[in-house]
Amino acid sequence: MYKFTAKIRKMTEVTPILTAKDMEQAFEIRRQVFVIEQKVDPAEEYDEYENTCTHLLAKLGGVPCGTARIRKTENGTKLERFAVLAAYRGKGIGAALVDNCLQRLESGTYAYMHAQEHALEFYAKHGFEPVGERFWECEIPHFKMWRTV
């Protein structure tokens, strides 16, 4: 299984979003994952930072299947809105997104995220460490995680 997952991960194309069409695809992935599956209020999913972030789109075989965004804050660089369509989970798409985000950051950058509790182990594999207590966002348990790039 690992070799298969690693092969798909290498075949995954992750690129910055530069067109309105790609942004629509990323928003649709987020709608499927967060709004429909996790029942997040769309007013909380889409925010005032959409136009100032670096958005990424993951494609497998040319099919959009995952997305994430990078946002500079006063506390460091926040990696957020990681979403992979259900049919593509467990195939390395999320790992390709995390790796791509980290590769875009300068050495020494403080990177952090608000990780859903169920994904702590996944992000730990990428060097992120939880800090602080569990908190709730959109009625979903989260932990702050961080690492230096």
What does this 3D model show about the protein?
With 149 residues, the chain is an alpha+beta fold. It has a single domain, classed as Gcn5-related N-acetyltransferase (GNAT) (Aminopeptidase, 3-Layer(aba) Sandwich), CATH 3.40.630.30. Helix content is 32%, strand content 38%. It has five helices and seven strands, in the order αβααβββαβαββ. The longest helix is centred in the N-terminal third of the chain and has 18 residues, at 20-37. Mean pLDDT is 90; it is low at 1-8.
SSE order and pairing:
Elements: H1 2-11, E1 12-16, H2 20-37, H3 42-45, E2 54-60, E3 63-73, E4 76-84, H4 93-103, E5 110-116, H5 120-124, E6 129-137, E7 140-148
Parallel strand pairs: 4-5
Antiparallel strand pairs: 1-2, 2-3, 3-4, 5-7, 6-7
Care to count the β-strands?
Answer: 7
| Molecular shape | globular
Order of helices and strands: HEHHEEEHEHEE
Helix segment tally: 5
Query: How many discrete structural domains?
Result: 1
Instruction: Give the radius of gyration.
Output: 15 Å
Let me know the CATH homologous superfamily. Gcn5-related N-acetyltransferase (GNAT)
Distance between the termini: 29 Å
CATH architecture descriptor name = 3-Layer(aba) Sandwich
**Structural class by secondary-structure content:** alpha+beta
Q: How are the strands of the biggest sheet laid out side by side?
A: 1-2-3-4-5-7-6
Mean pLDDT: 90
Characterize the largest beta sheet: strand count, sense, and whether it forms a barrel.
7 strands, mixed
**Low-confidence regions:** 1-8
The CATH C-level class name: Alpha Beta
Helix content bin? 25-40%
The proportion of strand residues reads: 35-45%
Kindly report the CATH topology. Aminopeptidase
